[in-house]
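Progress narrative, Year 2. Work on Putative membrane protein insertion efficiency factor from Fuscovulum ytuae advanced from sequence curation to structure prediction during this period.
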Amino acid sequence: MTLLARLFSLPVRAYRLILSPWVGHGCRFQPTCSAYALEALERHGGIKGGYLTVHRICRCHPWGGHGYDPVPGSDPEHDAKTGH
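Result:
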């Protein structure tokens, strides 16, 4: 993981440690946004992984999507179906 990706992952790790137990498990997507963020940062680095994380979080609202939404490149079969 790049230095920038590690820096961006700190708030996500803090959220998972401190806030996630209090918020509960009501995520609309699989994997959860925090798991998605950590995988995107690890797989794609700080800039692209950060962009993918922000894009995913912006879709996480009552009128947004739901269901299986893996990080691009982590599931080649899903990527082939969706054109990523």
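The first helix runs from residue 3 to 23. The chain has a mean pLDDT of 92.
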